[in-house]
Design goal:
Elements lengths: L4 H16 L15 H13 L3 H14 L4 H6 L12 H21 L11 H7 L1 H10 L4 H4 L3 H11 L2 H16 L4 H10 L12 H13 L10
Helix pairs in contact: 1-3, 2-6, 3-5, 7-10, 10-12
Length: 226
Amino acid sequence: MPMNPLEHDHRYGELDQVMRAYTGQIADDTQDEPSLALTAYLRHTWHNRPWALPIAEQQLRDYASTPPGRLRQHLGEFYAIPDVGLPDGGVQNWLFLLADHIKRSVESGEVPPPATPVTHWEWQARFAELGQFLSGWFSQDMPDEFHDHDAAVDDYRASTDPQLLARLVGELHELLALDLDESDYAQAVAELGMEVDPPAPYSPSGWLALVADRLGTPRAEYGPPA
């Protein structure tokens, strides 16, 4: 019988986050240098959930020390390590290597400095609500669902909790503060799930600034005359 969510997270929750960080990335970690994927995981986790790093190190080490046997695989009571391009015989040593890198980072206090996200996972983890907004309201189906971009923004505003709305505005300002080239902003919104172009004549950053301004301005509420 497969594990329930609580048991899964207790055993593998942070291990799963580390594995997700390798989506679309090469597992080319060495003894001397962590990969781009692991560096992105360390950077984001240090700055947002530093307490999770020792948990990740322990879960990686526990899994590598006691990989699932045939019975657990048959019952579905295990975490399936995704294919990261390594031979089966190399995965166990790779997990130990990741645990060693995380342990070294924690013990030395070496925190990767803030930087522009470099992997798909890091974009999604850092700008979670913006990813929900762009992928949910600006997918390739947007022209069939809304009259225009403004209508999609209005629908998001009307259907979203004000606290999440405020979080989105904060993430928009954080993204704009990165001061990227327009080609990099185009890549950023694509990484975050936007599948349509910004409305003419706006560039990606210009449209993001417009959305931040619109959503950051309280909507006037008019009651009946006294």
